[in-house]
Amino acid sequence: xxxxxxxxxxxxxxxxxxxxxxxxxxxxxxxxxxxxxxxxxxxxxxxxxxxxxxxxxxxxxxxxxxxxxxxxxxxxxxxxxxxxxxxxxxxxxxxxxxxxxxxxxxxxxxxxxxxxxxxxxxxxxxxxxxxxxxxxxxxxxxxxxxxxxxxxxxxx
Length: 156
Known about the structure:
- Helices cover about 50% and strands about 10% of the residues.
- It is an alpha/beta fold.
- A five-stranded parallel β-sheet has the order 1-2-3-4-5, with helices on one face.
- Helix 3 links the parallel strand 1 (about 40) and strand 2.
- The chain is globular and about 40 Å long.
- The N and C termini lie far apart (about 35 Å).
């Protein structure tokens, strides 16, 4: 699937969600004719089912990776929660450079899956996951990952 098809599919999902902010973002996806490498879903009041619908638009054929998408942010969608974070971790391409999940209502169940995804990612440069509900134990694991991977800016 090419990038333009992905943009149209995401716009369709956002229109179905129907909030003013989602429709506004759908218009951006529909009216941008150049390749979008940064996907911004910040502060759209998305819940886990909305996020799963968006992530499904990004899925590639098994064994391939969507190298066009460099950055994605679902930050400030406090209803995303663990189920949304787990769907993201299980389905995002490992070729991403940046991901934002600030204040998304994620606790350890989702955080552990995200950490596993980070460990598999090949091109990761920045992860912003602050203002979530991680235990001290998981925070220590995340900090250790950051220490072991100084090329990645990890904001917890």
